[in-house]
Design brief:
There is one protein chain. This protein has 506 residues and is of the alpha/beta class. It has 2 domains: 373 residues, Glycosidases (TIM Barrel, Alpha-Beta Barrel), CATH 3.20.20.80; 113 residues, Immunoglobulin-like (Sandwich), CATH 2.60.40. It is 23% helix and 28% strand. It contains 9 helices and 28 strands. Strand 19 and strand 20 form a beta hairpin. Helix 5 crosses helix 6, helix 7 runs parallel beside helix 8 and helix 8 runs parallel beside helix 9. The longest helix has 28 residues. The structure holds alpha-L-arabinofuranose (AHR). The site of alpha-L-arabinofuranose has 10 residues, from loops.
Length: 506
């Protein structure tokens, strides 16, 4: 039996709600057919934006939404996406499916979506095929008040007041689709672009430089070196950007052989889980480099693309990255969140890729009927909302059973995390073992527990998933296999399950 010791009275760093961030790219059916159906659609919408999608995402309290890419960001020219829709220039989306982009969803539509969702905007600018002036004018158009050329243009297009845009990406994947640059070339460009990304009025930009892919530690080193020492003893020169990003996707094998979303062997499942755990090593190594240059942790790390990447579903456009989502995806998400908390003092934001109809989505919509399905991953996000902006609590395992050896690595059978806010705590428990249930003892110290409730997400088979015909095949329910024991609680965790325990504290 495994015991987890949790000192409820020793809160650690705050884990930002932005760790539960989202990402919407002009890719496949994420924007068109996902968020955006247009004002004339039979599908209920508000100014062209699907109402059921907004309603579902509001229940997740999504903290921020990144847009318009991804790779698309570096070929997007924002002025093509303003003004009367029918007159907007068209372009080819060369990254994703080689389809025509009509630019009907542009700056005003995105900011409208952000307001409907009650979330923060994270706009990703174009470095790869854009200019400093273009990006600088976009910031002016969005955030400046008073009178100026871009403000007048915005007002001509119907928006009097500036919007708030807190987060700004300086290009995307500059090492690849964003321009195939060297680390040093991009580091220099990022400084230049950041200089002209102005704070207008009281809009303060948090500028995010395009960071490394997976284990490209040299890229992180180059960006941090370029910033110089910005720690407590710095020369007082502010960094041109406030954060650097990192991208990491989980597959069951290598890039060329990603595996299928719903058809996989047990071995592929365990290999996937081992790859999900790998984010811990990556965060450790990247943050170690950052600590060297910035010991006071003034520069944030932003994992603005993460999640599972499978082969596309049969019969769908290979460039649209449409995939199903099973209980396995849910556990990949829960493991990531447990690990994110450990780096809460450096990891400021994380964005799952992507919110609707692309990669590890929260929501899938049927292209023919429009039916909407919430995925198992959606439910993990919903079960985690109490972790937003809560203080991390250490979870110390007295005995963590190992379920599999993958190569020379031991894969833990269990994953856990906890946090506290006000007079409450939330404990997340994942049983990654496909065959064995586990009994967990929670040794809860330091504060009196006055109330306990629990919920579970599981399914008979880890391959189970939700469809329009069976929308609740994998859905959370109340969990009663939890009892008080001396000094804490005993919780039953069925095979391949995710359980959250909510505590009221005196
Ligand atoms: O999320 C899909 C793509 O993955 C993004 O456009 C790109 O940044 C990454 O390679």
């Amino acid at each position: 039996m495994t015991t987890y010791v949790i000192n409820l009275d020793l809160p650690g760093a705050v884990q930002s709600r932005h760790l539960y961030g989202h990402f919407a790219e002009h890719l496949g059916r994420c924007i068109y057919g996902g968020f955006w159906v247009g004002e004339d659609s039979d599908i209920p919408n508000e100014r062209g934006i699907r109402s059921d999608v907004v309603e579902a995402l509001r229940a997740l309290n999504i903290p921020n939404l990144r847009w318009p890419g991804g790779c698309f960001a570096d070929e997007y020219h924002w002025k093509d996406g303003i003004g009367p829709r029918e007159q907007r220039p068209r372009m080819v989306n060369t990254h994703w499916g080689n389809v025509e982009e009509n630019n009907h969803f542009g700056t005003h539509e995105f900011m409208d979506l952000v307001e409907l969702l009650g979330t923060d905007a994270y706009v990703n600018g174009n470095v790869g095929s854009g200019t400093v002036r273009e990006m600088s004018e976009w910031v002016e158009y969005l955030t400046r008040d008073g009178d100026s050329p871009m403000v007048r243009l915005r007002k001509e297009n119907g928006r009097e007041q500036p919007w708030k845009v807190p987060y700004w990406g300086i290009g995307n994947e500059a090492w690849g689709c964003g321009g195939n640059m060297t680390a040093q070339a991009y580091a220099d460009l990022a400084r230049q672009y950041a200089t002209f990304l102005r704070d207008h009025g009281d809009n303060k930009l948090y500028r995010i430089a395009a960071g490394a892919n997976v284990d490209d530690f040299g890229w992180t080193e180059a960006l941090m070196k370029s910033v110089g020492c910005v720690g407590c003893n710095s020369s007082g020169v502010a960094s041109p950007y406030q954060a650097i990003s990192l991208h990491y996707y989980t597959m069951s094998a290598e890039w060329e052989n990603k595996g299928k979303a719903t058809v996989f062997t047990d071995d592929e499942y365990y290999a996937t889980m081992a790859n999900a755990w790998h984010i811990n090593t990556l965060l450790k190594r990247h943050t170690t480099i950052m600590d060297h240059y910035d010991p006071c942790k003034t520069i944030g790390l932003v994992l603005d693309e993460w999640g599972t990447w499978w082969q596309v579903e049969e019969g769908t456009n290979p460039g649209f990255l449409y995939q199903q989502n099973t209980m396995r995806d849910a556990l990949v998400a829960s493991v990531h969140f447990d690990i994110f908390g450990k780096y809460a003092d450096r990891l400021f934001m994380a964005n799952i890729a992507q919110t609707v109809n692309v990669l590890q989505a929260m929501i899938l919509t049927d292209p023919d009927t429009g039916a909407l399905v919430l995925t198992p991953t959606y439910h993990v996000f919903e079960m985690n909302t109490a972790h937003h902006d809560a203080h991390v609590l250490d979870v110390v395992a007295k005995d963590a059973p190992v379920s599999r050896k993958i190569g020379d690595k031991k894969l833990p059978a269990l994953s856990a995390s906890a946090s506290t806010k006000d007079n409450s705590a939330l404990i997340s428990l994942s049983n990654l073992d496909l065959d064995h249930a586990r009994t967990i003892t929670l040794d809860l110290r330091g504060r009196e527990v006055t109330g306990v409730t629990a919920r579970i997400l599981t399914a008979p088979d880890v391959r189970d998933h939700n469809t329009p015909d069976a929308p609740d095949a994998v859905a959370p329910r109340e969990w009663t296999e939890i009892s008080r024991v001396d000094g804490g609680l005993q919780v039953e965790l069925p095979a391949h399950s995710y359980v959250t325990v909510s505590l009221d504290l005196a």
